[in-house]
Amino acid sequence: MRFELITLGTGAALPAQGRSPSAQVLCLEESLYLIDCGEGTQERLRMAGLSFMRIGHVFISHLHGDHYFGLMGLLSTMHLLGRTRELHLYGPPPLKAIIDLQLQASATWLRFPLHFHPVQDEAPMLLLEDEKLTVTSLPLRHRLPTTGFLFRQRPGPRRLRPERIAEIPHYQRASVKDGRDLVRDDGTTVPNAELTTDPAPPAAYAYCSDTAPRADLASWIRGVDLLYHEATFTQHLAARARETMHSTAAQAAALAREAGVGALLLGHFSSRYKDLTPLLAEASAVFANVALSQEGHRYPVARPEGEKFGRD
Amino acid sequence: MRFELITLGTGAALPAQGRSPSAQVLCLEESLYLIDCGEGTQERLRMAGLSFMRIGHVFISHLHGDHYFGLMGLLSTMHLLGRTRELHLYGPPPLKAIIDLQLQASATWLRFPLHFHPVQDEAPMLLLEDEKLTVTSLPLRHRLPTTGFLFRQRPGPRRLRPERIAEIPHYQRASVKDGRDLVRDDGTTVPNAELTTDPAPPAAYAYCSDTAPRADLASWIRGVDLLYHEATFTQHLAARARETMHSTAAQAAALAREAGVGALLLGHFSSRYKDLTPLLAEASAVFANVALSQEGHRYPVARPEGEKFGRD
Fold this sequence. Notes:
Two copies of one chain form a homodimer. The first copy, chain A, has two domains: 3-156 and 200-300, Ribonuclease Z/Hydroxyacylglutathione hydrolase-like (Metallo-beta-lactamase, Chain A); 159-196, no CATH class. In chain A, 23% of the residues lie in helices and 26% in strands. The first copy, chain A, has helices at 41-47, 71-80, 94-105, 170-177, 192-195, 217-220, 238-244, 249-259, 277-284, and strands at residues 3-9, 23-28, 31-37, 55-59, 87-91, 114-118, 126-129, 133-139, 147-153, 159-160, 182-183, 189-190, 196-197, 204-208, 226-230, 263-267, 290-292, 298-300. In chain A, strand 7 (126-129) and strand 8 form a beta hairpin. Chain A binds chain B through residues 13-15, 39-40, 42-43, 46, 63-66, 69-70, 72-73, 76-77, 80-81, 92, 94-95, 97-98, 101-102, 104-107, 143-144, and chain B through 13-15, 39-40, 42-43, 46, 63-66, 69-70, 72-73, 76-77, 80-81, 92, 94-95, 97-98, 101-102, 104-107, 143-144.
């Protein structure tokens, strides 16, 4: 099962150092979930070879321009490419009027249904539940109303014990995988637990940008396989981070450690850092399994037990 | 005197073939005038080595996204870079609300004065007159209210005849260049025409995108040194051009010929043309001094008499 993250933009508000503004794509089998959409995202989707048509859901964390100025261009291109498939958009309530005003100004009636879902919760709320995953909002702490997003795979079927498969008739296997006991032709039953083991634990990805440290965040993202967290500054600029309601690399790593996540991916780097190794070094000292996100790179959400994160 | 055009984007609505959406910079000495601002313009300004701070005026032709979706990002970056110098923005009236709504959504109060000048004239109107040039609107014919822009240098001072310079006291030279007669110490006068010749004819640049052919356009741009005109299609797709209110390369060339311009630059190429030579060939058959605009290329507005346009 393919479940991976592609980071399209790793920069902060001011474009510099060749970094693009925030945008990521979460790929689960053939479905793409776009997370934030800074200016130029459509171009980087194209560079990454990702089909716009496979994007069914777009999540916007907040309305600072580096997180959404590419959205109108993407919607416009989807329209011009003849999209008819519906698109679900999740974001702060004012985003709806911003889109409508610009569509109206260009006398554009989108050929596809655009369903807008306002996100403005004080506590995590279920935003989406489809056959593959659930998405929950993660209220963050920033200068504007901001939410992260927690993507959690739906649990798979129970796994048949290989040594017992032969005794389960084909027509009953789906039922046993669903957790039901096996009923034999003679009327006797075999308890499900004798025939199956627990399914693979569903993998989870948490996206946290932009935010100052927030006490309740760790409990919401406990044990996720992959955490993306902004790391705009190093600890040398902790005061600046506090003032702008951002996080340092060390703060991001402290959250990863506290929440017991599998791996931490840093991003949203201030344009002042031409060399990012100080950010990585600072985070590594607190939480070992950490990497810097890079434009266009792919990161598996879940990895085999014990496999180290980092190099792709 | 440096007076040149830099084309940053040559594509039409659908981004493809590596072409960027519409954006140009007109450079007159140290001043930059930005014309249209498709998504990613700020990145291409940076690639062209052009300082955002030298842009004093921005002109938006109409509100199709490929002509303005890069504007918010540019304004935001100017703000983050600490700009305090005022910026003048010319465009269709609804642009004001589009900008205000997005500034409000991000709780941004620009550090620099942004003066918005609505453009919605039925006939050419003077938009700007500064010490270097005048800018006049050129009403076009498109699916949305659209204007082109005519940039005309202010006439320079009269030129002193080299053989007469010696007899003009230094302190009277500015006055003679301004067209006044020379008054000698003994009270006699020398007519200005004996001492000077006409100044270099002021150069002019006309920007016409997007538009179907319009009968009165030729009279408004007569004799300009450089005409940029959209050429979205070839004549094979004349019906499609009519339907979408665009022009073919042949129609752009016919206008250049009728208006007696010095040189014609084509752009706004449909994404269906991977190879642009058919567009160039079609236009060349009608008007010889024509070139295809290319991303990041520079084109002098005025050239020495008889010099051929084209290769840069």
